[in-house]
Amino acid sequence: MFDRPIAISLSPNTKPDDVRQAASSLLNIYNWQKGSWEKKVISWFKKYFQVNQVYLFNSGRSALYCLLKSFNIGPGMEVIIQSFTCVAVPDPIIWVGAKPVYSDIDNSLNIDPAQLTQYITDKTKAIIVQHTFGIPAQIHMIKKITQKYNLILIEDCAHSLGATHQGKRIGSFGDAAFFSFGRDKVISSVFGGAAFIRNKSENLKNLSNIYSSLSYPDYKWIVKQVIHPLAFFFILPLYNYYLGKFILYCFQKITLLSKPIEPIELTGGLPSFIPYKLPNALARLAYHQLKKLSLFNVRRQAIARFYFRQLKDINNIFLPPDNKEAIYLRFNILVKNRDKLYRFFRQYHILLGLWYANVIDPAGVEFDKIAYTKGSSEYAEKMASLSLNLPTYPSLTDKDSGYIVELIRKYADKNNRR
Ligand SMILES: Cc1ncc(COP(=O)(O)O)c(C=O)c1O
């Protein structure tokens, strides 16, 4: 009774120590916008990635938007991204006035380098490489292509902080990289992000100027985010009862809690909270989580190994690539009748993940507004129709992951016999 429910996206990284940080942050009203925690997060990133300058933003979207501006990307230009992504990636391209061009993916659910050159035109300025679910893309092959065609390479590390490729940290390969500290990302300050540029002094200067011109979000926005871990700490144990769901509904209705994506973003519009600097109150939460990053990722990898061992022989369930350097932010399985399996889990009060059940997620994205043509990325669309994410978040217990495996077996037994 009153156990935390198994739910992939309800504040998955938050533990009591994070709640204490949020409470202290909330009480420290004079330091909500500016303060020393920002500097700590910046130092952490500088050391981890061996870069001279790091800039903090209030989201990955803000970070990407400012990076694109720093590279002078604008009207009449194209930026290649992959299909099987979140609308948060094409949107910043649209906000700067450029056009997103969608490349199909391979079975790692990342951009397929073998197909990439067919999307390059005279207007192509940059390629954004996403390391989906924390599985590294084939970054060396992609880098060769960007070098050959003189394109900017931006790494989208929203899912992959801490992953490596041939021993080198993801985020170290491109001309630039950005990160997200969103509520269900690798580390979380509810909203937040970071970006850096390597070896391009002119663009780095631009980024520094753009960052200086930004403001901090207002107090109301900051409070909404800081309250998030506190609210979930009380709501989650009640979530399996009507009371918990009702409280969450009320909090969202009176907009006491923020939504991860605003409706305007589904049509390529710019929401009011972008672009801003990362406020100090959230930098405090991010820094506290960064200190736990390697523990978090070791745990995620252990859970992924468990799924690999336990699910390998189940008919009609296909597992992600087994990559020892991946961090498996989510463990994405492919299954026919995905929605049926999702509903089956709901009967047991378990909420699995549906990133990217829509080829450009979430549901409701207007494809024509973000320049996506339905049917253009055949493989990505197929993967979107089959994908279901199993949780690997750090507080998932062995009992929880064992229960998930047990339910998948039960479902497969029932359905494969027919
Ligand atoms: C692959 C990917 N890139 C970028 C982003 C943007 O991050 P944020 O939510 O912090 O703006 C997201 C998350 O929505 C994402 O999933």
From TrEMBL:
Gene3D superfamilies named among the record's database cross-references: Aspartate Aminotransferase, domain 1 (3.90.1150.10), Type I PLP-dependent aspartate aminotransferase-like (Major domain) (3.40.640.10)
Biological process (GO), any one: polysaccharide biosynthetic process
Similarity comment text for this entry: Belongs to the DegT/DnrJ/EryC1 family.
InterPro entries from the UniProt entry: DegT/StrS_aminotransferase, PyrdxlP-dep_Trfase, PyrdxlP-dep_Trfase_major, PyrdxlP-dep_Trfase_small
Active site (record annotation): 185 (proton acceptor)
In-chain residues carrying the UniProt-annotated modification N6-(pyridoxal phosphate)lysine: 185
The name this protein goes by in its record: Aminotransferase
Entries under Pfam families matching the protein: DegT_DnrJ_EryC1
GO molecular function, one term: transaminase activity
Keywords on record: Pyridoxal phosphate
Source organism per UniProt: Candidatus Gottesmanbacteria bacterium RBG_16_38_7b
